[in-house]
Amino acid sequence: MSEGVAEVLDDSDQEFAELLYNLGVQRNVAKVITYLAIAGEATSKDIERWTGLRQPEVSIVMRTMRRENWINVRDVKNSEGKGRPHKVYTLITPLDEIIRHVEEERRKESAKAMETIQKLRDLASF
């Protein structure tokens, strides 16, 4: 993965996000995981800008990631001291733990599929 934050995710970062997606992670969640792993922390605006997602998409992703306890959210006062504070998101679950979670989900799905195949075989031998 690239060091620092680039204008957009580079090819290696895109590949990382695509691999997460290929393993069943929602595409937008995969993009945000990748971005936060590089950036460390970011506002919604940063995430929109660097991942190419729109604000509603970012909100949905953040809801999903909060549910998984993968991010921390904190409020930061607006630099002008007016209006609502900005939410700053930080990835709090290490990438290897997220990958382990994805791996375990795929193992469960595979085991369930194998059970179904075995039931089919049992039923086919009447």
Automatic annotation (TrEMBL):
It comes from the Archaea. It comes from Methanothrix harundinacea. InterPro entries: UCP037373_trxn_reg (IPR017185), WH-like_DNA-bd_sf (IPR036388), WH_DNA-bd_sf (IPR036390). This is Transcriptional regulator, TrmB. SUPFAM superfamilies: Winged helix' DNA-binding domain (SSF46785).
